[in-house]
Amino acid sequence: MDVRRSRDAAILRLAIGLAQGIALFLLQKADESKTWPATQPMLYAPVLVCVLMIPLLPLAALSAMRRTNLLIWTAVATVVTAILAVHAAWVGAAPDRIGASPLSPPLFLATAAMLFIAHHLVQPADAAGKPVAPYEAYFDLTWTNGVRLALSLAFTGAFWLLLFLAAALFKLIGIEAIGKLIGETAFAFPATGLMFAAAVHMAVQLTEARAGLVRGALTVGLTLLGWLLPLMVLIGGGFLATLPFTGLAPLWGTKAATALLLSAAAALILLINAAYQDGEEPPHLIPRLAARIAGLLLIPIVILAGYALWLRIDQYGLTPERVIAGVFLLVAIGFTIGYALAAVKPGPWMKPLERTNPIMAAVCVLLLIALFTPLADPARLSVASQVKRLAVGKVMADKFDYAFLRFDAGRYGREALEGLKASANPEIAKRAGEALAPDYNRPSRAPEAPKKLDLSKIKAYPTGARLPDDFVSQTWGEDTGSICLMSGSECPALVMDVDSDGTADVLLGAGGEFDVFQKRDGQWRKTAVADTACESPNIDEALKAGDFAMIEPSPRKDLRIGGQSLLIRPSAAGCQTASPAKADRPQGPPIAPGPLSSAPF
Is the bond preceding residue 537 a cis peptide, omega within 30 degrees? Predict the structure, then answer.
């Protein structure tokens, strides 16, 4: 009976995979040829996303869920996914955007995440026969299916690597048929769907037959990961303990405080779960204590993340990125409340975590749905926020980002521009009308104003030499031409006369070469590079030892062709050590003759 069920499941999985591959091929050809249904984005988008995502549900649960419940769940998932895709196509639709072009990559990632999380709430509930399953069921199925997915993707990738290898081998003997075959989408899509389905079936069979082995490997991996929790606690605790002495200014100065703090919170949440696992066997005392401390550390970290996000929104309004960051913040707040309560509540170690995780998983599903519907669409919320700032005078008409409404906010942005075009403010109406013009291009970013650089870390040579005063005081634009200047890091500088004109030049060290700066028309500019095709010398040691000097260039001619000079430079094979006659003369890094040879010395 089990053999028959396995055979039936294999046939169904292969049929689903083949049908999925054929459907994706047909959709791709329609998009490529701009024919129906690609010419109808509101139809094409839901069909494409559903064909790509929904078959994964029956592939994963075909032999595990009751057929009726699986059909109902697949139908519900299809409807929700189609709604998300229709909304995305509606927002991104434009006369020149058909097929898949109105859809943004985040839609596919969010849909995949939403379906994965939701499926691992539904399938354990089906197995348990009640709406809420035991926590162990959620844990086991989620991690087991994660392993199955990884194995299936690896198998499919290996399949294609072998095909590419076969194509390369046969091409060696003049047979290119295999290469042409695998390059055809008519083969690639069905073959990929079929092989992925076969891989899923084999992975399911393997993990069911070797459940103990898989569970043991997961336990070992998560236990090792859990031992990183004490380290993360030290990092987080040290960071928080240092803040009173440094203040928040350095943190805000990164301009990525929210993302960094939320990443730290996510790391703590992940490692707490790695230590807890299914809760059956508490880990060693050290990870147990670290988990309780981590649950409490989440509170200040998430508060700081929220404060950082609020500051940016208060100063500059909402953007799609800040809306998404706000959603991550809501998720972090939910986990923080649950984990902090688990940390302080007496009784079994971190037991309330078992309620927090399924609840927050359901919250994540709802938030993902909200993000890709009008409820919390990042573009809609951002447009409303920015237009309001313009209306109340927080941003002036000539400083407002009309390009964001035109190019980055989809339909919501274009509709907002239509409204601004009718504004009573003539400046706003004029600029909104310009932004709606067909030939309107995104304004280029204004170049950063020249500024003085901190050159205090540059060490000048020979010993006792100083960088020229006007070099130090000069204001520099965005592109200085030197890593040393742009990074503000420690680097050596040679103050020497390169062209024998009696004026000192500056050679800034950059790895194994020097950027040559000379004064031209009252400004210091990079005019050449001193490098070598040979093995780079140990510049630091040579400079400290005083082993450098300007030398005459090698008597080698260059090639002039078409009015341009082509430089003849030694290759690595042409490198020679100094002759004995020159061994007593200090040898510095050679100045590249080409760039300097064309300078008006």
Answer: no
